[in-house]
Amino acid sequence: MNILFINHRDLYHPQAGGAEEVIYQIGRRLDNVTWLSEKVKGRKDEEVIDNIRIVRRGNKFTLHLFAPIEAKKYDIVIDSVAHAVPFFSYLVNKKAIALVHHVHQDVLKFELNPAMANIIKLAERKIKNYKYMISVSNTTKNDLIKKLGVDESKITVIYNGVDHDKFMPGIKSNKPTVLWLGRLMKYKNPFDIIEIKRRVKNKVNFIVAGGGELQEEFSEIARKEGIQYLGKISEIEKIKAYQRAWVIVSTSFIEGWGMTIVEANSCGTPAIAYNTGSMPEIIRNGYNGFTVGYKDFDAMASKIDYITSNEDIMKEYSINSLNESKKYDWNNTAKEYERYINKINHED
After folding, report:
1. Which terminus of the chain is less hemmed in, N or C, by CB atoms within 10 Å?
2. In this structure, is residue 172 part of a structural domain?
3. For position 287, what pLDDT does the model report?
4. Which residue(s) pair with 94 in the sheet?
5. Phi and psi at residue 131, in whole multiples of 5°?
6. 167 domain residue, yes or no
7. Mean pLDDT value across residues 297-308
8. Which residues are in the Glycosyl transferase family domain (predicted)?
9. Helix (H/G/I), strand (E/B), else coil: 223
10. In whole angstroms, what is the distance from residue 145 CA to residue 155 CA?
11. In what order do the strands lie in the sheet with 289-292?
């Protein structure tokens, strides 16, 4: 059995993120895996990385033309719908699976003009034509049903994992520290951290890390507000940031899967987030962190003050966070993918 993942980016794309990490972690644990993605400057059109054959064709637009050509050649095709528009592999391969990271219907208004947003919304609704679907969370599953009209029987939920050999507890900073980490995009609301910081009463360091379209604007304001902005950081630096932080904050409008939350938890760092998307599914209120109302800056600040008010409180939430993160493991996730793929492969 040969398997093809189709995703706009691979690990070496300058804008690679969570979706690429998912495919890499699963793909390297399976056999006979090929990953079709856009061309990347300075990388070969084909290479093998950790047991995965990478094939690079076209750009973010023309990749959709190469996708059906490649999809015909494989037993199983997994279309990673990371940017709303599916690859429509089901038109040429009856065993095509849509891997849905989150539903974009309500997010597109943040990033696109109204006309383009409506076009992309219509394209995303075609996901319901896939016979098979993997959702990374129950939240995304519910969105597929309610917002895209997908038949529930088509959807299998397989949680993403975390690498516990890499993301593990370290030494916390001496001074209470709050971390915000992710791509600086409109729907992730990075500027909310400024309003939250203004309301925090404790003496707390605020650190923001990540690149993105808003980084220049954010960098200027952060400097004035006393927020340490690190820009895009390496994987090693990211792990250290997780380990040193007393709490991680998420201000996203929606996350189909809170990868940064699970990674931070694995490093013994509790989380505070808006109660949107998958956050209430990942964060158990009062155990490994808290969820608060969307844009409720006062509530967010209050929870930060609580966790950072006492080192013993932080340590209790740190232990809980590590324990909660053990629910998620890439080895288990890959086994679930393997079982699911094998089942589909043996269907007539």
Report:
1. C
2. no
3. 98
4. none
5. -80, -30
6. no
7. 98
8. 165-319
9. helix
10. 9
11. 228-229, 205-209, 177-181, 247-250, 271-274, 289-292
